[in-house]
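Incident log, structure service

09:12 report received: a user says their structure output differs between two submissions of the same chain.
09:20 pulled the input from the user's history:
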Amino acid sequence: MAGAMRWARFDPLGMLGIMAMLLIWAAMTRVLPPSSLPGPLSVGLRLGQDFFAAPELSFYGLPDASLSGSMIYTAENVLVALGVGAGVGIAAGLLTARSATLRALIDPVLMTAGTIPILVLAPFFLIWFGVGRASSVLLVALYVSVMLYVFAQRAASGLDPVFEQSARTLGADRQRILIDVLLPSTIPQILGGIRIALAGCWGLEAIAELLGAQYGVGKIIEVLAGATDVQGILAALVLLGVVAVLFDAGAALATRRLARWSVTTQIGHER
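09:34 re-ran on a clean worker, output below:
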């Protein structure tokens, strides 16, 4: 029960920020026409109206004519891309942190790939992997892997060498050091990197879908943009933002619980 109460607790400053944004949005509707900027209330009503069924979307040839179905598709892609990218990036980051040769080989490749804008890479992924789920998932996973590669590598590089020396003294080989020393000690920083990567995944996935997918929130935005349906676009964006915030809150809660041991250890050392 106490955990549920903590989960339900809201940040007052965050709530004030949301209220300020809504007030500014409402004030701007007095200057701009509804065709350019619909009001928050009308967008909210549109979101509720199209959440489970949106018959008008079927006229554009969308297989799933609902915001909820499209949002589930987008969320699935984000979570799969996050898992794949995190696995590759964390493993590569931990390995290269203790191998100068691997670092010299992998650093230029991943750093170069991470600096290429998604709008440039997306057409190639669509050509290589088609317009299905694979292209958008792999595209987002690439950027996630680069981000978590940097986080994992820096976390492992900043680890006090005394821990590894002690493990070697006890007979641990490189694999055991990676599993028993490097990975546990870098978990807090890696979890922070995962949370940051998750926040960026939603926008990247929406862009990937907008450029060539057949499903998802990004596809809905593309279709509604062609029809100049500003109200529908804002409803889709609001839903995407709300889901992203909820997932971020869940990631923050998981990070605090999984990394609680590190805080306890630090307090013990200070004492």
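09:41 both user submissions now match this output. Likely a transient worker issue. Closing.
09:42 reviewer note: Residues 174-212 form the longest helix (39 residues). The chain has one domain: 38-53+64-264.
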